[in-house]
Write a structure and sequence with these properties.
- The chain has 381 residues and is of the alpha+beta class.
- The protein folds into 2 domains: 164 residues, no CATH class; 208 residues, no CATH class.
- 47% of the residues lie in helices and 15% in strands.
- The chain is built from 16 helices and 9 strands.
- The longest helix has 25 residues.
Length: 381
């Protein structure tokens, strides 16, 4: 048994490589997926079913889906290539008909793409069993994925190729925040960067962090994370259903984010009010970092967490803003500084503690102190 397909032949790293595509139905027939997820097999890591399910859900739900090439190895005896002939001088071309023997399950060994392969199998089974999925199944069956087939019979060599292929640089979080437009909070962060008087021109779009010498307040992915905190709290997670809900009501999300950014924040701190009023120039931000932690991106997220805790039951944020307005956010402060007393910054320190537990504890402390401050004001009237 064999399959025949048009293919392009070239060389890479001293090996012959064939590039072609297979529709999902044919792929499901000729390339068995990994089912034994508890072991490391051939040139692959242990399969993670949850990762495969995530890709499966993506295939079932996204019409304009995209998967990268599956990378496989094959022994020289299991492939035959019949080049097409040029019409003029009869010279062989690098394109032709590729024949692959499929009478053995191990004729082709996958070394990159096992989770995508498993997801394809499971998606086709799931859609076939679901009446509502029949139309989607028909569409998927006619689509194809690219295949890169390397002529290599040595499993140890395939293992090294797996490691080499895995060295591709991961996508930076800032790039994900800018490009993943299916995420409501990425969209909200991008909208604030263009529309908010506080954040316009003050969001780092390229780097994943803001340096001491930067004129920016926060990186775009940090802003997206901060907006999640604003909606679900510091410990909260945004589920797919929550994200989908906000994707359908972006105007509501934008409104809440804008009120926090351009209404609450300048009311809570004169540093933000000064930036928005033009009394503080962006060029002054690096120097002012030595005077206030308000220009620290993690502190901006802490303020979003305080806003969430204060307003989650419908309370007006005004008293919280008044309390924060009078608090000391000076770096290198000792006892009596809000962030030091909250346990977020060590006495004499300039950097907030990174742990979630410390951050959430600090938010709870700040909110308690703000309520105490507000109650005392009420009693003194």
């Amino acid at each position: 048994m064999c399959i025949s397909t048009p293919a392009h032949r070239f060389h890479q790293g001293g090996r012959i490589v064939y590039a072609f595509s297979l529709d999902l139905t044919t792929l499901n027939t000729v390339l068995p997926p990994r089912l034994d997820d508890k072991v490391v097999k051939d040139a692959n890591r242990q399969l993670t079913p949850s990762h495969a399910r995530k890709i499966q859900n993506y295939l079932e739900e996204e019409d304009r889906w995209l998967l990268g090439a599956l990378m496989l190895g094959v022994t020289p005896n299991d492939v035959e290539f019949l080049p097409y002939q040029a019409s003029s001088d009869n010279a062989p071309l690098t394109v032709g008909e590729l024949r692959i023997k499929t009478d053995r399950n191990d004729a082709m060994k996958m070394f990159d793409g096992q989770h995508r392969r498993r997801a394809i199998k499971d998606a086709l089974i799931q859609l076939k069993s679901n009446k509502q999925g029949r139309a989607r199944l028909k569409s998927l069956q006619g689509d194809s994925v690219p295949i890169m087939l390397y002529v290599e019979e040595n499993t140890e060599a395939l293992q090294q190729m797996f490691l080499d292929a895995a060295k591709t640089k991961t996508i930076e979080r800032n790039t994900v925040a800018r490009f993943d437009l299916r995420n409501a909070f990425n969209l909200a962060a991008l909208w604030l960067e263009e529309s908010s008087d506080l954040f316009i021109g003050r969001v780092e779009m390229e780097r994943v962090s803001v340096s001491q010498s930067s004129q920016h307040l926060i990186a775009i992915y940090q802003l997206a994370t901060t907006l999640k905190t604003l909606i679900v709290g510091y410990r909260g997670r945004v589920s797919k259903d929550t994200n989908d809900k906000y994707m359908l009501n972006l105007d509501d999300l934008y409104e809440r984010c804008w009120v926090w950014a351009d209404d609450f924040m300048p009311s809570a701190r004169e540093e933000y009010e000064g930036l928005m009023a033009g009394e503080i120039d962006n060029s002054e931000i690096p120097q002012l970092r030595s005077e206030t932690l308000a220009y620290n991106a993690p502190i901006i997220r802490i303020l979003a967490g305080c806003y969430y805790e204060w307003t989650k039951d419908g309370e007006d944020w005004g008293p919280l803003a008044k309390f924060l307005r009078n608090a000391s956010l000076k770096p290198k402060s000792g006892e009596g500084a809000l962030l030091v007393d909250a346990g977020l910054v060590a006495p004499g320190g300039i950097t907030p503690h990174p742990s979630m537990q410390v951050a959430t504890s600090a938010i709870e402390y700040i909110v308690r102190q703000a309520k105490k401050f507000n109650n005392e004001r009420e009693l003194s009237r």
